[in-house]
Amino acid sequence: MATAIPPQQPTPERFMNAISAYQQTEAMKAAIELEIFTAIAEGNTTVATIAKRCKASERGVRTLCDFLTIHGFLTKDGVEYGLAADAAVFLNKTSPAYIGGAIEFLLTPRVREAHARMVDAVRKGGSALGEGNMLADNPDWVKFAEAMMPLMVMPAQIMAGELRKGGEAYKVLDIAAGHGVYGIFVAKQNPTAQIHACDWKNVLAVAERNAQTMGVGDRHHLIPGSAFDVEFGSGYDLALVANFLHHFNPAVCTAFLKKVHASLAPGGRAAIVEFVPNPDRVSPPMPAAFSMMMLTTTPEGDAYTFREIKKMAKDAGFSRVEMAEALLGLDRMMVAYR
Amino acid sequence: MATAIPPQQPTPERFMNAISAYQQTEAMKAAIELEIFTAIAEGNTTVATIAKRCKASERGVRTLCDFLTIHGFLTKDGVEYGLAADAAVFLNKTSPAYIGGAIEFLLTPRVREAHARMVDAVRKGGSALGEGNMLADNPDWVKFAEAMMPLMVMPAQIMAGELRKGGEAYKVLDIAAGHGVYGIFVAKQNPTAQIHACDWKNVLAVAERNAQTMGVGDRHHLIPGSAFDVEFGSGYDLALVANFLHHFNPAVCTAFLKKVHASLAPGGRAAIVEFVPNPDRVSPPMPAAFSMMMLTTTPEGDAYTFREIKKMAKDAGFSRVEMAEALLGLDRMMVAYR
Question: Which parts of chain B sit beneath pLDDT 70?
Fold first, then answer.
């Protein structure tokens, strides 16, 4: 970046970039809503043709496409725009790996407001919005289940394959199932597995639909209600606890894992999937930064280190906890043995 | 970043980073408001001592400081946080180069709302908020004048020095003076220069105060009102048109430069300061990205290329326009000769 100050001197540039970073969020959201990436994938590569396809002004399209080029999501060659490799795979609505719908969950007004009130959250040590995202039957979790599903397919496949290395599971409890794909891929990989999926009723409807679409509907059973309150039943070989613990404080997590432990058959396992920061809590960047999302949107949640999760599981009665080698996208999987 | 997908395959990571980028903005804003950087500069380096100094919870401070460390504004060594070099210079409130106050202008609710409505702006080809930031006597320009001044001191010094190479200026018109520092530094470098600063009355009060504080108050004269409507007078050696043209369309800019041209003495010059993207409009990144700020916050403004500005000035009657070598931070200076 051009600057009048010699490079060895500090400049305000990184500060300005941080202050302006929200523009990237708004531009990505606008581009998805206007279907800019899809328009380009369809062969509309100039300002005029994109504007026509997206029902927008040429001036607006030129500015947005230039902005997306500056941030690497488009290419620009003379007057023609093209898609960067990741934009082509993930942001073109007709691509099977399209994940643009994730903005519906990741950028709800409630999540944005929770972050806008970060000063209050830091002062208080928890979401400025009280229960934050944790209210029962919060419709945002339906958005989550619908919007995040495409992002979870590959991690869920890896997870199911990884778990089979420890033996087949026949009776599986899928806690806070959401989109349901973690349990669904266990069922797909083992045609004799029965999945019992627990979540709020409105969210379970999404998991049920996905199970049917993906051909395992007859082995996908529903336990509607709060995972803290419902009766799980017993005799499970495997309990999936994916992206759940981070919403709660360690004492609540430990008590909850006791309930999970009690539902397992002898020799049963719990698969705990989480963003796991290193002990320094500042690496790797994305799992570590997830702690901020939990501060702003939950009363007492956090991104937990492996040591913290191991302690919760041990305190809940599990005999040992192992970190799986495989990476599930940005998530890690830990297996706790009854 | 750890990922299960081989690096040659596209991953959703950059999409997720863009969608989450607003968190950087909120965290920087929160850290400035809570005086985290100042607290650390004062020697409070642990979560407990920072929390006490900033009247915040330990959990919140830990999460915010870790987030700022992930993004490079703090360092973390065991349990002790430190300031990155730029944070120490620019974000510690007791530093003479403190610029944290810039958030008061850069992140006004109106600017944020204008970006939140980016889809409307792209459809329409201009700010979704009508006149955007361009309303007369908009108090946000007082915030601009107050908040942005520390960022402008060094560029203004460089600019004044650069302009002296072309000869001393004795009667100087400072258009849309804002904080007034461009004119003020011309006056400071030439003790015989008289500065006539034009801006809305509420904003001019800031320039006047700065001129007095910086010892040139007796040579700093005020022309209150809209630069389009007021009478500038005539016989100026130098007119400063700094960060003004980008708010308007080329026809308005050209008409305005005619008015500036008419105010100059024979041999007079206009110094036009702007963010100037290259002809490709996608580099350098920050000046090019400024086009988005103009789309969202003005009816018809833009970041103009050198060729576009040269055309406006020529059409307004200037005989030649030259780009100065010196960089004024992210701005460039062009000199238009009567």
Answer: 1-8, 132-136
Q: ipTM of this predicted complex?
A: 0.93
Asked if the Cβ–Cβ distance from A86 to B10 is below 8 Å, we say yes
Tell me which of A62, A76, A92, A119 to substitute to probe the interface with B (most B C-beta atoms closer than 10 Å): A119
> Does B116 contact A26 at a Cβ distance shorter than 8 Å?
yes
| CB-closest option in B13, B70, B123 to A288 | B70
Q: What is the dihedral of CA B298, B304, B310, B311, to 10 degrees?
A: -60
Written as six digits, the tokens of A192 are 């004799």
CA distance readout (Å), B299 to A127, A169, B177, B248: 37, 62, 21, 8
Q: Is the pLDDT of residue A7 over 70?
A: no
When pLDDT is cut at 50, 70 and 90, the band that residue A6 belongs to is very low
Shortest CA gap B199–chain A (Å): 25
The per-residue pLDDT for range A47-82, each reduced to its tens digit, is: 999 999 999 999 999 999 999 999 999 999 999 999
Size of the A and B interface in Cβ pairs below 8 Å: 280
Nearest 10 degrees: Cα torsion B257, B258, B259, B265: 100
Distance, in Å, from the CA atom of A159 to the CA atom of A327, rounded to the nearest integer, reads: 9
Q: Is the pLDDT of residue A219 over 60?
A: yes
Give the integer Cα–Cα distance in Å for B286 and A7: 17
- Distance of alpha carbon B179 from its chain centroid, rounded? 11
Pairing state between β A194-199 and A171-175 = parallel
Tokens of B294: 């103009």
- Å from B275 to nearest chain A CA? 11
Comparing alpha-carbon positions, the chain A residue that sits nearest to B283 is A70
CB atoms within 10 A of CB B319: 10
Neighbours of A210 (CB within 10 A): 24
DSSP B145-170: HHHHHHHHHHHHHHHHHHHHTT---S
Phi, psi at A81, each rounded to 5°: -95, 150
Distance CA B143, CA B109 (A): 12
Q: State in Å, rounded, how far the first CA of chain A is from the last one.
A: 56
Where would I find the beta strands (DSSP E) of chain A?
74-77, 80-83, 171-175, 194-199, 220-224, 236-242, 264-274, 320-328, 331-337
What does the pLDDT look like over A26-47, one tens digit per residue?
999 999 999 999 999 999 999 9
Contact B67 A11 (CB under 8 A): no
> Using one digit for the tens of pLDDT, what is the confidence trace for B133-153?
666 677 888 888 888 888 888
Which residue in the set A1, A69, A73 is minimally distant from B284, CB to CB?
Answer: A1
CA distance B78 to B255: 61
Closest residue to B289, CB basis, from A62, A67, A289: A67
Q: Beta B80-83 vs B236-242: how paired, if at all?
A: unpaired
SS3 A197: strand
**Nearest-5° angle of CA A259, CA A261, CA A266?**
145
Q: Which residue has the tokens 């015989």?
A: B192
DSSP β-ladder status, A194-199 and A220-224: parallel
Instruction: State whether A329 and B4 contact (CB < 8 Å).
Output: yes
